[in-house]
What does this fold into?
Amino acid sequence: MKNLFTFLLQLLHIKSAMSQTTESERACLSRYASGKIKLVEVGVFQGVTTRVLRQAMDPSATLIGIDPFFKNRLGVCLYRIIAVREVESVANGEVKWLEMTSAQALQTNQLKGCSNFDFVFIDGDHSWEGIKGDWDGFSVLISSGGIIALHDSRNRGGCGSERFTNEVILQDPRFHVVETEHSLTVLERL
It folds into this structure.
């Protein structure tokens, strides 16, 4: 009942959409997404960071938002409704939705065989296995000079995504860290 009440407040614009990113993390993402042409976000939630990325990207850009948007008992995902409304409040470039897991998305024609994304934001499954799958799948799709940003990759008390970042990603010679902000790590492809 609480979720439904919150949803109604959000629909009436009384309550803002929620995000698990901080304001400073969103500002950092905006800086690196600025002017980018081919963007991906893994883990849309209520679309707050998706809206930020859409505002920052080039007007000719395409942003792919990936989220399974799990449905409730009534067969509806309230988060999806909020996310679409958030993102459609910005008229810039094009947004494509892939309503599936990132593993499923990596098998679609939109992503399979691509190798020229210039910005990817990963904020999906924060387990070791989840971030490993996202890193293995998306790191190869980033063009030289492109950016990959990882949420919950630091200052999270040793969760799977933080451990994987420290033990694997920060050792990857294809990338170097360009900035960190709270739990966000931003890397550039060499």
